[in-house]
Input
Amino acid sequence: MGESVKFTIPSLPPSKNLMHEILRLPGRPLIFKRSKAHQRWLNEAMPYIKMLTPSQDSFYFKVDAVFQYPFHHANGKMKRKDAHNFLEALCDAIATKNGFDDSYIKFGSWEAYDSDREQLDVMVSQVKEAKV
Output
């Protein structure tokens, strides 16, 4: 394993279901563009994301994420937030900040915990090989 960095983002990314706006124009293919919510979160999150120093022999990355947020509404009903749907926006932000394509993120894990506040704790590591 190569270099690793840890950081905390004080908000959650938008769900992958809310990442894009779809423009439908008659007689044209669908156009996908980043939603305003996604772009706003990217702008807010970028200062918190730490840079890696890519090593010459590292080709892949691992992202481990811990999502913290309230699991229930005030009335006690469970909130419908799928933590795994936050990963796409997170990986996009990490790759954008560090100047690599997010397809190089090959490994990782996620966990979600009930909390009074929203917070995202992240560790990004460089991985030298991806062999079994």
User: Anything to note?
Assistant: The chain has a mean pLDDT of 85.
